[in-house]
Fold this sequence. Notes:
Elements: E1 2-7, H1 20-39, E2 44-47, H2 60-70, E3 75-78, E4 81-82, H3 88-101, E5 106-111, H4 118-121, H5 129-145, E6 148-151, E7 159-163, E8 175-179, H6 183-192, E9 196-199, H7 209-221, E10 231-240, H8 243-265, H9 272-278, E11 286-289, H10 290-303, E12 309-313, H11 321-340
Parallel strand pairs: 1-2, 1-12, 2-3, 3-5, 4-5, 5-8, 8-9, 9-10, 10-11, 10-12
Antiparallel strand pairs: 6-7
Helix pairs in contact: 1-2, 1-11, 2-3, 3-5, 6-7, 10-11
Amino acid sequence: MEIGIDSFAAATLRDDKSSASDSVQAVEELLERITYADQVGLDVFGIGEHHRKEFLDSAPTIILAAAAAQTKRIRLTSAVTVLSAADPVRVFQNFATLDLISRGRIEMVVGRGSFTEAFPLFGLKLQDYDELFTEKLNLLLNIRANEIVNWSGKFRSALNNQAIYPRPLQNPLPIWIGVGGTPESFVRAGTLGLPLMVAIIGGETHRFRPLVDLYKAAGKKAGHSPEQLKVGLHSLGYVANTTAEAMEDYFPGYAKTFTRIGKERGWPPVTRTQFAAQAGPLGALLVGSTEEVAAKILRHSDALGGISRVTFQMDNAGLSHIKLLKAIELIGTRIASLVNG
């Protein structure tokens, strides 16, 4: 199983505001964490895409390019690229260029996004949410498969015998589908034979098994081999020397973040009891000691019928750079060996 980290490039907010100097430091520290993840042997590091003041990842390919220049082995990916609000031609060109810079270490996870700010920002209609993604994914896969593209659709001008460059080092460039809990998304990924990255940030992980089964059944029906139908798990998590330490470190910032988001979405404030349940044996959070978290990853894998990748999203809880570095060290030196040993 591949083990990695996902980051949303959290900004430093003071009284709900950020300064340019704080943002410079936050980006520098993020790049240091990616470099350290490479050094301790992690398999993959992903950068999300958001268009909000609390995140610095609105241009993730720029961050990935800087990371590619500073690392040697680790695979680098988006987590996720909001394809519904992007031009697939530019997306492919950006990631193909990244693949050349990194000497073949680039992947992308494409999805519709869990926030909606990108739609008005780029002049799109939210009611076209799914139709936009379907059409743009079709074009992206067409570009990946063909150097000369002929294509037409509803939301973009047609391409007639159009050459698209550069071409990536990897053939094909890896493209995963990022999904939440919509059955149609799982079926679409399976039908296309694309690997699946499942974001499970709450609830009980085993409840996603019927959706994963839908994905595999759709893939089998479409004629794809089981080896093509890989399943990855993106989870909120944090590792410390002991479970008590991890819980105490992670809870305050986690509660603050999700209580703030909850005000936008009509969720109640996060309580310590809810947090403890999410961090318990069946809950989605991967928070605890290395031994407990490794055992939980293996339980999640069994519950979902086998996963090939798990990524930790840790920088949503206001943890210090030093604590995040230590967690990366523990994940790279202990979790990976416990899970794969």
